[in-house]
Amino acid sequence: KILILDFGSQVTQLIARRVREQQVYCEIHPFDVSAEFVREFAPAGVILSGGPNSVYEAVGWHAPQVVFELGVPVLGICYGMQTMAQQLGGKVASSGKREFGYAEIRARGHSELFRGIQDRTNDEGHGLLDVWMSHGDKVTELPPGFKVIASNESCPIAAIADETRRFYAVQFHPEVTHTLKGKEMIARFVHEICGCQHDWNMPDYVTEAIEKVRAQVGKEEVILGLSGGVDSSVVAALLHRAIGDQLTCVFVDNGLLRLNEAEQVMETFARNLGVKVIHVDATEQFMGHLKGVSDPEAKRKIIGREFVEVFQAEAQKLPNAKWLAQGTIYPDVIESAGSKTGKAHTIKSHHNVGGLPETLKLKLLEPLRELFKDEVRELGIALGLPHDMVYRHPFPGPGLGVRILGEVKKEFADLLRRADAIFIDELRAADWYDKTSQAFAVFLPVKSVGVMGDGRTYEYVVALRAVQTQDFMTAHWAELPHSLLGKVSNRIINEVRGINRVVYDISGKPPATIEWE
Ligand code: XMP
């Protein structure tokens, strides 16, 4: 396995993704882990990430020296190159200006890292590479034992190597797709230079994960809050495969789910897979507590609190349960170097079940802790979950509660559910569902005038929202074909009595958010 030490780059997770695409297991840890940690991890190779600092300014931001003493290959990327150079006796200085964007570099001499890898050759037959640069400092003096293996005019020392010790460093970012041959370089590093096998693959992982759960849980019982979302669904399928009837799922219908969602969850899990699922219809309870509340954050709090309440009551009926399973995934638990600069590491703040393990005195079972989202999906498919469930758009924990603006009423939820289902149906039919990252309808509690037949109507408005995004931090509104929007609008107005106007949201994020509340 490969150890990735994070120096705070925005794209450290991409390094891990690229390594795992090569079917090699890796983990990201902050750069300041202890020497004992590194030794115990026993990596086949180490990758030092990029980062926002300058090596000559950021005191203490270097790799544990043991990394260079283990006798395993090391790859430094950007800041990782600079700290490697400095720690091994070279020099780093400011370039005077930041270099950002595409650059063409020329491979020089023979290097194991670039051997046979090039985008094209120049007149003299030297290999040229298109790479992505983003740096303000550069290595100006080589550490002893190193040679230059790539350069260009603005960056004469663009990549270096000490082939004897198998230390490599590049000033550019091989982990981003803009570096066209980056994938091949990572493959070369992990397979040929570090000697890692292709042993991180889903079928093997399924077997391994099942064994791990069995060993951890033994004969004890487990409870899982099943929401119908991807993560909890995959946990349910995995645990059921591993421990069968020792698993009990609690599915809480808060009255704010999508059309037929409860039926679909019960069908997939209870009927088809034979999972024990307790279906709690708590619509009345949620609606009762939401009455008269229109502030979005207050609504979120109430929905979260009532969920805990209902879940707890169900859990208490299962006195033999010793474990609470959760769908925590790897991006939720990576402790990045950012935490050193005061930025708290990422924790899913909207985790509905926060606090539950303590009050219920349950041990926490998190079988997806090591997986990225796309690996969770692959696992879901490997476990036989339906494609449409595994590739479903994300749905917020508070559900339609934040898609009905202002006060939530059952009558509004019923209208919205139907409008939303029509929108999603038509998106699927037009092959647009997979081209959007999230799409849904929003209920606006304002009435506008319309005509229907001979009469005037005075009914509610629905807004359609569809966005495209990589990370949900920024998003573009989807340029859906007008004909598709027209069809959705017609169907909603004709089929959902109570709505006489449909509008399309054309705001980007930022400044607008994806949800309306
Ligand atoms: P915004 O609206 O902030 O949404 O642009 C970004 C992503 O987060 C989801 N979201 C939530 N998910 N509980 C959740 O579980 C929430 O309270 C919540 N609010 C927003 C939203 O659906 C989108 O995917």
Automatic annotation (TrEMBL):
The keyword Ligase applies. Keywords: ATP-binding, Glutamine amidotransferase, GMP biosynthesis, Ligase, Nucleotide-binding, Purine biosynthesis. Its EC number is 6.3.5.2. ATP binds at S227, G228, G229, V230, D231, S232, S233. Pathway: Purine metabolism; GMP biosynthesis; GMP from XMP (L-Gln route): step 1/1. InterPro entries: Class_I_gatase-like, GATASE, GMP_synth_C, GMP_synth_GATase, GMP_synthase, GMPS_ATP_PPase_dom, NAD/GMP_synthase, Rossmann-like_a/b/a_fold. GO terms for molecular function: GMP synthase (glutamine-hydrolyzing) activity. It catalyses: XMP + L-glutamine + ATP + H2O = GMP + L-glutamate + AMP + diphosphate + 2 H(+). SUPFAM superfamilies: Adenine nucleotide alpha hydrolases-like, Class I glutamine amidotransferase-like, GMP synthetase C-terminal dimerisation domain. Residues 200-392 form the GMPS ATP-PPase domain. The active site is at C78 (nucleophile), H173, E175. The keyword NAD does not apply. Gene3D superfamilies: 3.30.300.10, 3.40.50.880, HUPs. HAMAP family: GMP_synthase. Homodimer. Catalyzes the synthesis of GMP from XMP. NCBIfam families: guaA_Cterm (TIGR00884), guaA_Nterm (TIGR00888), PRK00074.1 (NF000848). This is GMP synthase [glutamine-hydrolyzing]. It comes from Aromatoleum diolicum. The gene is guaA.
